[in-house]
Write a structure and sequence with these properties.
- The chain has about 240 residues and is of the alpha+beta class.
- It folds into two domains: about 10-70, no CATH class; about 70-235, Gcn5-related N-acetyltransferase (GNAT) (Aminopeptidase), CATH 3.40.630.30.
- The protein is built from six helices and 14 strands.
- An eight-stranded mixed β-sheet has the order 8-9-10-11-12-7-13-14. It has a four-stranded antiparallel β-sheet with strand order 1-4-6-5. A two-stranded antiparallel ribbon has the order 2-3.
- A hairpin with a 2-residue loop joins strand 13 (about 225) and strand 14.
- It is globular and about 45 Å long.
């Protein structure tokens, strides 16, 4: 890591893995008491880290290497036939990009999405404080993509603007519109926005080969993976 960036890291206590059964997960966290800034965050993103609220972390499981940080190389990406179909299917949706701050309309949609998709997990019945801790951060350059159909908010994608690319944080959408593949569409729109901003990458977080909830990221090509402390093409 760049010598000008000095960060202390702490390991979390082992807990049940959210993605792979019968495994324990451990994360390496950047010191939560330091004054984080975008310069440091930009460097950590390049080293496979990710943000949750104001916390910067990377999987650090002693016996498991299944979580792999991945990113789309924007300038080599071309929309596939399937991706073009998804874009056409959602061509009637209006997209606006908003500053990253709390909005009641966003929270109401988030709560509905979580209670439909994750109603038995730790994320169920989120409060406004839960939402704020997860997605809002006062030191990041965060963007909220709003997706509206006939002026009705049906999806929101949260991403951070770093100097090497957009970093997708989370997407939530109206469960009544599942046939539109809104999660897929949100990533495609972030790829398109990255291209408009002449950015090199869209960071997608962690890909897990044997987890259906995370394996979908493999569909975006070309894809690079952070392995052995370097980015390599994921063939």
């Amino acid at each position: 890591m760049n010598d000008q960036v000095k960060v202390n890291f702490f390991a979390s206590t082992p807990e049940a893995c959210s993605y792979l059964a019968d495994r324990k997960s451990v994360s390496a966290f950047a010191n939560p008491h330091m004054d984080m800034d975008m310069k440091t965050y930009n460097e950590l993103i390049r080293h496979g880290f990710r943000r949750s609220g104001g916390y910067i972390y990377r999987p650090h499981c002693p016996q498991c290497q299944e979580c792999v940080s991945v990113r789309v190389t924007i300038k080599q990406h071309h929309f596939s036939r399937n991706e073009k179909r998804v874009l056409r299917r959602n061509s009637d949706i209006d997209i606006s990009i908003m500053p990253g701050r709390f909005r009641d309309e966003h929270f109401d949609l988030y709560r509905r999405y979580i209670n439909n998709r994750h109603n038995e997990g730790s994320m169920a019945n989120p409060s406004k404080s839960d939402y704020h801790r997860f997605l809002i951060c006062d030191w990041t350059d965060t963007l909220f993509f709003e997706y509206r159909l006939n002026r009705i908010l049906i999806a929101v994608a949260v991403c951070d603007l770093t100097d090497s690319g957009l970093s997708a944080v989370y997407t939530f959408f109206d469960p009544d519109y599942i046939e539109r593949s809104l999660g897929h569409f949100a990533i495609l729109s972030q790829i398109d926005e990255s291209r408009k901003r002449d950015l090199d990458y869209l960071y997608l977080g962690y890909w897990i080969r044997d987890c259906n909830k995370m394996s979908y990221k493999r569909r975006y090509k070309p894809l690079e993976a952070y392995l052995n402390e370097q980015w390599v093409a994921l063939d």
